[in-house]
Write a structure and sequence with these properties.
single chain; about 325 residues; alpha/beta; Arc Repressor Mutant, subunit A; Rossmann fold; 2 domains; seven-stranded parallel β-sheet; 15 helices; about 50% helix; elongated
């Protein structure tokens, strides 16, 4: 606390009286001025000086979730954060999906372009959306698929689900599915596909959406999607961890500091046919008026979420209390 030696005894008595009336009794500055026989300007000056001198401390007694949301925004430079209660009645992914759907419906408007990545939490988000609420949304997958065997909740699938919510007032596109393993084959096929004007328009639009909804994947033996697909490219979960990979976003692997892990053995996986790369998500997150909303929670995903926020792949995070508290505890 700052010293109050700059206040004379008379000013100190007046200031204490002002503080008592203003903060404890809820009196207006005009009422206080009348009670003390001074001007309202003098009361205002005394209150401000009391704050400057350290006689007043402000303590916010916000509900826990609001505190965590504000902390995430400040600590990680986010535009916004949504924190759901821990230990809720339902599955955490369902709780996150409900919160993310509500947030999307708050920021969405007619005529926007929306991009979707993949995963079960994003599936839960789309399930919770209200039907026919918006008109003329344009929906894009943020990645195509490059496997014939590992059918999962890929972007094309989720785009179709979301389109069903808003039809007939929606436009939805898909990116091609190709079963390719070698980087040389992938690069050759990318060039061929992008010579098609229709495919090129879809791919370019997917990289420039107004709202991107993305999941954050962890690295685990039991995780379908990225880890299963990596295995089909000959990269095991053990090897991913040896390379420093802690998570993935839109099939882009990153380390604990949020750096894309660009290693030769991962490039065929990362350069899957026509996927929006991690650097593009980072660029969208920095743009005014664009939203990259990442939805992930559960204690198992803490390391992956921490890496994703460190890499600034999103500007909005939807997570749960346990993960939010742990992120802030580790950061500070």
């Amino acid at each position: 606390m700052k010293s109050s030696v700059s206040l004379s005894p008379r000013e100190l008595r007046q200031t204490v009286h002002c503080l008592e009336l203003y903060y404890r009794r809820g009196r207006s500055q005009k009422d206080i001025a009348r009670a003390l026989g001074v001007s309202a300007a003098t009361v205002s000056r005394l209150l401000k000086r009391a704050f400057d001198e350290g006689l007043v401390r402000v303590e916010l007694d916000l509900p826990r979730r609001e505190q965590l949301e504000a902390g995430l925004v400040e600590q990680f430079g986010l535009r916004d954060a949504v924190v759901v209660a821990a230990g809720g009645r339902g599955d955490v992914k369902e709780e996150l999906g409900t919160a993310a759907a509500t947030y999307f419906e708050k920021i969405a408007a007619n005529g926007l372009r929306v991009g979707l990545s993949c995963g079960f939490t994003l599936y839960q988000t789309i399930r919770q959306l209200h039907e026919r609420r918006f008109r003329d949304l344009a929906l894009y997958p943020l990645s195509g698929e490059s496997t014939l065997e590992l059918v999962d909740l890929f972007p094309n699938t989720l785009v179709g689900m979301m389109a069903a919510k808003y039809r007939p007032h929606v436009h939805a596109w898909a990116l091609p599915v190709q079963h390719l393993l070698s980087l040389r084959e992938i690069e050759r096929e990318r060039r061929r596909l992008l010579r098609d004007p229709a495919i090129r328009r879809i791919y370019e639009a997917a990289q420039d959406v107004d709202i991107a909804l993305v999941g954050i994947g962890l690295i685990d033996e039991e995780t379908p999607g990225f880890c299963s697909l990596a295995a089909s490219y000959g990269v095991s979960v053990k090897r991913l961890r040896q390379l420093g990979v802690v998570g993935e976003i839109n099939y882009q692997p990153f380390d604990h500091e949020g750096r894309i892990v660009d290693r030769p053995e991962l490039r065929a996986l990362m350069r899957r046919v026509l996927s929006v790369e991690g650097e593009r998500l980072q660029a969208l997150s920095r743009r005014e008026g664009r939203y990259v909303v990442a939805i992930a929670g559960g204690k198992a995903k803490l390391e992956a979420v921490r890496g994703a926020v460190a890499g600034r792949f999103m500007n909005v995070l939807v997570t749960d209390e346990d993960v939010a508290a742990a992120l802030l505890r580790q950061a500070g």
